[in-house]
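Intended use. Records like the one below are meant for learning the mapping from a protein sequence to its folded structure. Do not use them to infer anything beyond what is encoded.
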Amino acid sequence: MKRRAWKRWIGAAAAVGLLGACSSVPLYGNPVTSSPRQAPSKFFEVAWWTPLVEPIALEYGPRELASPAVDPDSGRVITLTRDGVIRCVAPGGTLEWSYKTGNRFSAGAAVHEGIAYVPAGDGFLYALDVRTGKLKWKYEAGEALATTPVVSGTLVLVASESDTLFAVKADTGTWAWQYRRDTPTGFTIHGAGSPLVKDGTVYLGFSDGYLVALDVEAGTGKWEKALSSGATQFLDVDSTPVINDAGRLYVTSYQGGLYALDAETGDVEWNYAVSGLTSVMAAGEVVIASGDGRLDAYLSDNGRLLWSMSLGDRAGRSPVLARGMILLANQRALLFVDPRTGKSRMEWNPGDGISAPPRVMGSNAYVLSNNGYLYALHLRGGGG
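Structure written out for the chain above:
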């Protein structure tokens, strides 16, 4: 399948020989890169950082696409990096264990009841003990996996770059069912949205422009809806669907824009037509969407645009609401955006930019920079 690569840029060459135990943190970032444009102390403080990936001299545009995952019970952080290595980092930044796979990663792991479920680019879904790194099982999908797994009851759900949704038994790693759609003939967008499971139904978009609702236990179809029309390429529905407190389903189509649908029937309630959207998040009465060159806020009940923030030539991936601010990785930096106004309050670039969305747990955010450094940030909230 043809995939459009994300834009790359030349990063500064990383210094060699800096791997090892974590160090105390300079206020403005790690020691091998330049300082961010604005002091971060008003919004957060860096609790700790640790380098993960061995630097490569003159590496062109390093990119880390997989968000860190956090074990809520132990605070351990599971990272998946461009060298194909799964790592477990203890609170404080000490590396506890690592596990080598055959390729780089496109999406982060999921941690559930002490097990890390890892979607790998080598076509395997791995289940590892978070404490020890011991392999519990691995399932051979045979296709590069592209979404953060979702644990639903006894099943683990994960989708591939080739438009297949796999359901695997969480205890044994054996196949339960799969759902596949034909890949379109035209160009498609790199990446995919994770499945959403709600009340016995799994919702997932595909690169042919369809949003599908399936029975989570059997994998049988409930309904499907075409959200792209009048085009032959870039039809993708690549955002992870969300359902707000009112029970309305939201998803983005790269061609068709932002959609609100009836979750039971798939009927479209409203649509804001704008191209390039790839992510969506619901927050109370507001829906936040991002994508190529923009971050938008809409009223959830009727789709009225409240504000739109230009990202220039950058793409925003999977905004996160934390401590009264929107956190958005736009490849160049992590943006801190006021959700009321759509104004960026700060940009933080620890080195070579940030592509993977941060993982937020409580007042802490875990950020993987493009040069392979893991940061733990303590969020102050609201710019106070």
